[in-house]
Design goal:
The complex is a heterodimer of chains A (114) and B (114). Chain A has 114 residues and is mainly β. Chain A has no helices and twelve strands. The N and C termini of chain B lie far apart (37 Å). With 114 residues, chain B is mainly β. Classes of the chains: A mainly beta (114), B mainly beta (114).
């Protein structure tokens, strides 16, 4: 069965600190996709990144970076120099076999204080 | 391009009533999925529609149903509401609903059952 574990329920940092959100997944599929979404207080899930199982290159987008390690089934997300606007719940998700639907982790609430 | 829209944004119902939620996907997207989000269970997949057909279904009772119209708009219906149905219901659309397609989410409908 598919499973996504985000062990960190809540993280609090002070602005400008770096923070890493952990994601560990389980799947029997050899072809799969991993995603990160951000959910601000407004409720809408905002897509951040998609990574397929054959592409283990790390990715950087501005202050955001992602580290995909197939050997440890992890897809971690780092925010460099965090800002108050980064405060939100972040979800890691795994594609369901054959479909675009997703299995989500429980989410990590990130609180960035000034 | 307009994003995914959901109506209404908020609903208050009483136990035993039924409710219909509506979702309009991004123009050109043919797959629509529905998710339920609660504090206890997190984000859970309800069902997915493509070309007016339900292709995939999560583990929810038959009180939860949906449909998709020829213009890809979708509705979900919950009959005989229970207190536990109080949740944020999120709709997501993707191009074809295939493995790897990115799902884009709407702002959600917050349902409160009294």
């Amino acid at each position: 069965a598919q499973k996504v574990t985000q062990a960190q329920t809540e993280i609090s940092v002070v602005e400008k600190e770096d923070v890493t959100l952990d994601c560990v997944y389980e799947t029997r599929d050899t072809t799969y996709y991993l995603f990160w979404y951000k959910q601000p207080p407004s409720g809408e899930l905002v897509f951040l990144i998609r990574r397929n199982s054959f592409d283990e290159q790390n990715e950087i987008s501005g202050r955001y970076s992602w580290n995909f390690q197939k050997s440890t089934s992890s897809f971690n997300f780092t925010i460099t120099a965090s800002q108050v606007v980064d405060s939100a719940v972040y979800f890691c998700a795994l594609s369901d076999p054959g479909y675009s639907t997703l299995t989500f982790g429980k989410g990590t609430m990130l609180l960035v204080s000034p | 391009k307009a994003g995914v829209t959901q109506t209404p944004r908020y609903l208050i119902k009483t136990r035993g009533q039924q409710v219909t939620l509506s979702c309009s996907p991004i123009s050109g997207h043919r797959s629509v999925s529905w998710y339920q989000q609660t504090p206890g269970q997190g984000l859970q997949f309800l069902f997915e529609y493509f070309s007016e057909t339900q292709r995939n279904k999560g583990n929810f009772p038959g009180r939860f149903s949906g449909r998709q119209f020829s213009n890809s708009r979708s509705e979900m219906n919950v009959s005989t509401l229970e207190l536990g149905d109080s949740a944020l219901y999120l709709c997501a659309s993707s191009l074809e609903g295939q493995l790897g397609d990115t799902q884009y989410f709407g702002p959600g409908t917050r349902l409160t059952v009294l």
